[in-house]
Amino acid sequence: MPGTGLARRVIYWRDVLHEGPVPEAAPAELRRIRVSYLTGRYSAERAEAIRQFTERDQALEANRDGEYVLWFEADLCDQLQIAEIFARPAGLGVAAGRITLICIGEHPGIARFGGLGGWPPGSCASCRTRTRARG
Questions:
Q1: What's the pLDDT score for residue 121?
Q2: Has residue 42 been placed in a domain?
Q3: For the packed helices 46-62 and 27-41, what is the interaxial angle rounded to 10 degrees?
Q4: Average pLDDT by stretches of 10, the chain with 135 residues
Q5: Is residue 99 within 8 Å of 89, Cβ to Cβ?
Q6: Cβ-contact 38, 69 below 8 angstroms
Q7: Which pLDDT value is given to residue 127?
Q8: Could you list the residue range(s) of the whole structural domain that residue 77 is in?
Q9: Cα–Cα–Cα angle for 8, 9, 12, rounded to 5 degrees
Q10: Is the residue at 107 inside a domain?
Q11: Distance, CA of 16 to CA of 35 (rounded, Å)
Q12: What is the rounded CA–CA span in Å between residue 9 and residue 42?
């Protein structure tokens, strides 16, 4: 996504929600719980994890008057992240019409699609154009 010109800002949602606790909680509390779990389970640095999670949450809140375009893959990890993210703008009063979901499970010309990172240059732009034309 960076360098494609499709977004002013790209936020990475780095959380493996299919592992560890994910209780119903306010964003700040959930962030604390997830960072504690992830830094305890993996070799992630706590301060950096807190910074990344705080930055992504603040970006969602700061953009409440803008457009959200969510680019995800069709795997379990990404589907759980989509569910978490969809709850956030709703809680901020963001109208559903300002949220676009692009969920990719395959791409023409790629026999074994392994994710967005494996796309050839220019593929992101063509996908968004096709999605907008349909929607």
A1: 56
A2: yes
A3: 150
A4: 65 90 93 94 89 92 86 82 84 86 67 58 53 40
A5: yes
A6: no
A7: 55
A8: 27-134
A9: 150
A10: yes
A11: 11
A12: 27
Per-residue pLDDT at 135: 41
Residues 102, 128 contacting (CB under 8 angstroms): yes
pLDDT at 120: 56
- Find out whether 89 and 64 touch, Cβ atoms under 8 Å: yes
Strand 99-104 and strand 68-73: pairing? Answer: parallel
126 contacts: CB under 8 Å, gap ≥ 6: none
Q: What is the CA radius of gyration of the chain?
A: 16
Measure CA 97 to chain center.
Answer: 18
The domain total for the chain is 1
The pLDDT value given to residue 60: 87
pLDDT at 134: 39
Handedness of CA 77, 82, 83, 87 (dihedral sign): positive
Terminal Cα distance for the chain, rounded: 21
- Helix residue spans in 18-119 (DSSP H): 27-41, 46-62, 76-91
